[in-house]
Amino acid sequence: MKVLIGGGTGFVGRHLEKALRQRGHTVQLISRSKGADRVSWSELKEEQKLPECDALVNLSGEYILNPFRLWNASYKKDIYDSRIGTNQLLTDLVTKATTRPSVWVSAHAEGIYPRSHHKTYDDHYQPESKEGNYGQQLCYDWEKSAMLPSDVTDVRHVGVRIGLVLGRDGGFIQQSYLPFWLGLGGTVGSGDQKFPWIHIKDTANIFVHAIENDNMTGFYNAISPGQCNSSDFSRAFGAALNRPSFMWVPSFVIQLMTGRDRAPFILEGSRIKPTRTLESGFQFEFEDIEQAMVDIVNTK
User: Which ranges carry the NAD-dependent epimerase/dehydratase domain (predicted)?
Assistant: First the structure.
């Protein structure tokens, strides 16, 4: 299959491209600039035509916990446009296309779920209206933007709700690796908040599974079945590095550092199960946080 990937140069995109090529698929990327095996977003907007492909994937999204961006109107616009704006462009081009891809896979986030210490949610959950905190409202618009018109019946849509992706070469682990390696890692906030994680290898493989499995449609969780809380993760990370992880960062410090809207992404969590993902036949390679962190730390 020929797979066209928006956001393919990012953390998840790099691993997905590698996994797809290993399975014999060809890959073309949508990025900010043209290049070999690439088409730019501006080119798509100008030409109003989707390159011919068998599968279309969108992983685009400005990193919401970017420590180098101030939490202001400009940053919020970038977060919104990089998710909702790119989905709207792609769904519009799919609708207009004379030759459409057979499957459209859109990336989303576990932030769609209400924050709760006690209630458990799975991928059957679908909010009826836009409500909750900033993250839930953003995720609601994000999911709605990926929906194709009802008369487009020849394209299978799969939405993947991704948890906190753990891998050596990007995201949260790359940001926090040095503090933990120096023995400065530890609990953030209460430490009891749920930590809906997933290994980068499983993340990429779920997207491959969604592309190749004709029976998949609707929303699926890319979240490990192995539940843990924030303290469990910190201990596992420290143990994998053979470093202590006894530091504690109070909630108010996180709120001051990240802002009111971003703090819940760190300080609050949900119990989430990948029910539909498992029912689809997908097998997670990493279900245990200790096993996952050992693999990540030993990855070169």
Answer: 3-214
